[in-house]
Amino acid sequence: MNYKFISEITIENQIVDQKNLFSIGFSSDINGYLMTVLVCWIAHYERYYSITEYDYHLYKTDKELFYNKYQKELSQKKNHCFTENFIGACALRDYDGAKDFHHAYPSEKNPFQGYLYYHNILYARIVWESQEIYVPPVQAIQIDENNFRFPLRDSCCLMKDEAGNPICYKLNIKF
Q1: pTM of the shown model
Q2: Could you tell me which of 81, 84, 61 has the C-alpha nearest to residue 15?
Q3: To which H or E segment does residue 116 belong?
């Protein structure tokens, strides 16, 4: 089983596109290339997308082609930006759970304790007093005008509270 706990994502050889509010570079944390898109919400945060080394160099030589290739990811339109390239975020609102799911159970400190990097995805590491879970980011792949597929749910189960209310999806994994 190949996994890694990461507290914070770092990017090397970063190129910043201030006009379109994103940057690209190499992350030794995941041993791959990332695009980080700045989300301007109540508080600013970043979404992480996996890109290839080829795309990193493509940006340097043909920005318009790069923009076209990643138009969904850069659009920040609800659901449409959560492509297969979306691997995580700094904010739990982009993870597959109910509002404030991380406060479902008591915790001595902030329950969001970074990430579990597993199968090229940054699962949110949620640590409660009673248990530790790993929540997938939302990947919402549009099937048709009204329907979406959520591929990361295939390796997860829906976690519910004592009353049967959904809390979040959690990765089916044991260490």
Answers
A1: 0.94
A2: 61
A3: strand 112-118
